[in-house]
Amino acid sequence: MWCVLTEDDDLDVCRDEDVSFFSVSSLEGGSVEEEVVSENFLCLVRPTQLLNCSWWFPVLHQDAQLSVHISVCDHSRTLQSVAVRSDERVGWMSLSLEAPATSSVVIRFNVTVGNRWTVYSRSYDMEDIEVLAPPPNISASVADGDLLVAWGLPHSRGPTNPSCFEYQLDVGDQEAPRHVRNQLTYREAGVDPGHAYRVRIRTRVMAACQQDPHWSNWSQPIGGFASRAALRFHPLICGSVNKVF
Q1: Residue ranges of E strands in the chain
Q2: Are 143 and 187 in contact (CB under 8 A)?
Q3: Alpha-carbon dihedral of residues 90, 93, 99, 105, nearest 10 degrees?
Q4: Helix (H) or strand (E) holding 21
Q5: For residues 44 and 53, what is the distance between their CA atoms, to the nearest angstrom?
Q6: Number of CB atoms found within 10 A of residue 196's CB
Q7: What is the spatial distance between Cα 222 and Cα 113, in angstroms, rounded to a whole number?
Q8: What does pTM read for this prediction?
């Protein structure tokens, strides 16, 4: 069961200078396996400017109450926030962003059992949790026996250096996706002139430029094209062309 908290229940986490990455505080001051607990949180910013945060606490006491606060911060100033209270161990929240690219996100969990409580806080730079859109301006063709694919530099809140991006190309030939780094073109020689290729691409920031990067969705396929030679000489394709005309 979930309920939305009032403003009085909200925590001004943006003013908390102690939340730089991951922190835990407890009424009893007990030890906590921080590196384990911190893996139970995940926040991502989608290309639609939607912030999605999810969590799971599989070992919480059965009587535990969980309140979740998500704040979008510009340094110590709160730009947006949302909060809920729940007795469920697994959940997620979404927030439509209106914040600048330089902002950060703080997610805070307050776990209470009777008069005992523990607070878990996790801070993210917005650029480190961005999931990119597929690359723009994708073009593909087959000429002189080579498959030629080109695309534009992805839009990113963070890095803009082309060397920070990697790509996977699926050309619809039942083979594993091709992996490309540090460039905006791909050439594959000796392709089947009779195959109607359907190219799609996805991208992500490389791990050297972003913490824990995630792949974008696949682009819409550019499809059904074959080489001009195949259209002239491949009997199956020529047969289908004759039927059209």
Answers
A1: 2-4, 22-26, 41-45, 50-56, 65-74, 77-86, 90-96, 104-113, 116-125, 139-143, 146-150, 165-170, 178-181, 185-189, 197-205, 222-225
A2: no
A3: -10
A4: none
A5: 6
A6: 13
A7: 55
A8: 0.73
Please, are residues 172 and 199 in contact by the beta-carbon 8 Å criterion?
yes
Task: Tell me how far apart the alpha carbons of residues 89 and 207 are, in angstroms, rounded to a whole number.
Answer: 30
**Distance from C-alpha of 77 to C-alpha of 87, rounded to nearest angstrom:** 30
The CA distances from residue 4 to 115, 138, 205, in Å, are 22, 43, 35
Cα–Cα distance measured from residue 134 to residue 131, given in angstroms and rounded to the nearest whole number: 10
Alpha helices in 133-210 (DSSP H): none
pLDDT tens digits for range 171-205: 887 789 999 998 999 999 988 777 778 899 999 99
Cα 60 to Cα 11, 54, 84, 89: the distances in Å are 22, 16, 17, 7
Count of beta carbons in the 10 Å neighbourhood of residue 166:
19
Single-letter code of the amino acid located at 32: V
pLDDT per residue over 91-138, tens digit each? 888 989 886 666 889 888 888 877 777 888 888 888 889 999 999 999
The answer for residues whose C-beta is within 8 angstroms of residue 209's C-beta and 6 or more apart is 158, 159, 161, 164
